[in-house]
Amino acid sequence: MSRILPTARIQTADTEQMKTDMTSMIEIPPENKLTVYYKTAKAMVAIMVVWSAVPTAYAKETECWAEFFQGSQYAGKHFRLEGPVQLENLSNVQGENWESRIESLKVGPKASVSVFENTNFKLTLKEMEKYPDLLRSLGLTEKDAMEDKELIFIANSRIHDLSDFNFRNKIRSLKIDCEQ
Fold first, then answer.
1. CATH number, domain at 147?
2. For residue 51, what are the domain limits?
3. Which residues lie below 8 Å from residue 119, measured CB to CB, with a gap of 6+?
4. 3-state DSSP call for residue 172?
5. How far apart (Å, rounded) are the C-alpha atoms in residues 35 and 27?
6. Which of 49, 66, 140, 168 is least surrounded by Cβ atoms within 10 Å, i.e. has the fewest?
7. What percentage of the chain exceeds 70 in pLDDT?
8. pLDDT category of residue 51 using cuts at 50, 70 and 90
9. Sequential DSSP letters for 76-105
10. Residue 134: which pLDDT band, with cuts at 50, 70 and 90?
11. Which residues is 178 bridged to in the sheet?
12. Are residues 89 and 133 in the same domain?
């Protein structure tokens, strides 16, 4: 059985009396109640409009992104990057080495993504196309050299398997550019 101290009763009584006094001080005459309800509703609508505009503005700013997946069909570990960004290598993306591990990707509505087989955005085999004797000495054909070692994906692209482009687990650098 709990025991209530007399001082606690006095505080409670004082608090109740204060509430009664405050209510009588702000009592609204009946003819003005409609005006108060209208102004309160108007203020609430204004607050709701402001709050709803903030996420919309934020969403528009973040429509430049790309998401990269370790598995095909957007499976497995993944990471998302906001653009614009240029990664000369993927050895430390969000604390992990992603070089030659990407199998699928998604591109945001205001982004384009360029992926490269080499680090530092190099197109080494494409450059070797200028030296056909060197290509032959390496056992490569001109057709091999003509295959880009760079792929560019436009906004809203969904690439479920990079092997469709002979690029599965080959990405070693990338760029994300944003539309204005």
1. 2.60.20.10
2. 30-61
3. 88, 89, 99, 172, 173
4. coil
5. 14
6. 49
7. 57
8. very low
9. SSEEEEESSEEES--TTBTTB--TT---EE
10. confident
11. 111
12. yes
